[in-house]
Design brief:
By secondary structure, the protein is mainly β. The chain is built from no helices and 16 strands.
Length: about 190
């Protein structure tokens, strides 16, 4: 059953774009006004918002193995933030030429996959690499990993599967359609 939380918005213009649970179980919300932590008391009472960062138009969140948080935004690109250092500010990842981030995903090798209006990219600790997808429209909605340790990239015009063989990335168009748009794949433990 669904239960409505008794929770006021911090302001009238408050809009939630993404939820993510951190490694300590806290619920984070990326919003148009910044990054917030949702605090919920016992029996879902005394719920409140705690603002963590003032960074506008957060579109996506991904949490690295060390607890650092990658923050994608609709207009100003990708940031990395260490929530364990109270004086730290989000650091813009300038090697990434994308500004309009639509989705983030960390794979099993701790590589960050970035979906953007400008295409798809792979960010690793030591390198950044844009990947070219077949087709004219590179607008990508989301990236997810599969149980085969491949990555699905969802674009307006189709779904692509990216695999790694002998250190090189290969792309295969899994599905396409002349009409309609694709947004987010879903699956279970058997596959996507």
């Amino acid at each position: 059953a669904f239960r409505m939380l008794s929770l006021d918005k911090p302001t009238d213009s408050f809009e939630i774009n993404v939820f993510k649970r951190d490694s300590h179980g806290a619920i984070l919300a990326g919003t148009n006004l910044g990054l917030y932590r949702l605090r919920i008391g016992e029996n879902f009472l005394d719920a409140s918002w705690n603002k963590l960062l003032s960074l506008e138009d957060i579109s996506s969140l991904a949490i690295a193995q060390n607890g650092s948080i990658f923050i994608g935004t609709w207009l100003s690109g990708l940031y990395l933030w260490n929530p364990y250092n109270p004086s730290s500010r989000p650091e813009k990842i300038t090697a990434l030429p994308f500004n309009f981030i639509t989705g983030l995903f960390i794979d099993r090798e701790n590589s960050l996959w970035v979906a953007s209006d400008e295409g798809v990219a792979l960010v690793q600790e030591t390198a950044f690499s844009p990947l070219e997808l077949a087709g004219k429209n590179v607008f990508t909605r989301s990236v997810v990993t599969t149980n085969k340790n491949t990555v699905l990239v969802v674009a307006h015009h189709g779904v692509f599967e990216i695999s790694k063989t002998n250190g090189d990335y290969q792309e295969e168009k899994v599905f396409s359609s002349g009409t309609g748009r694709f947004y987010q794949p879903a699956g279970d433990s058997s596959g996507v």
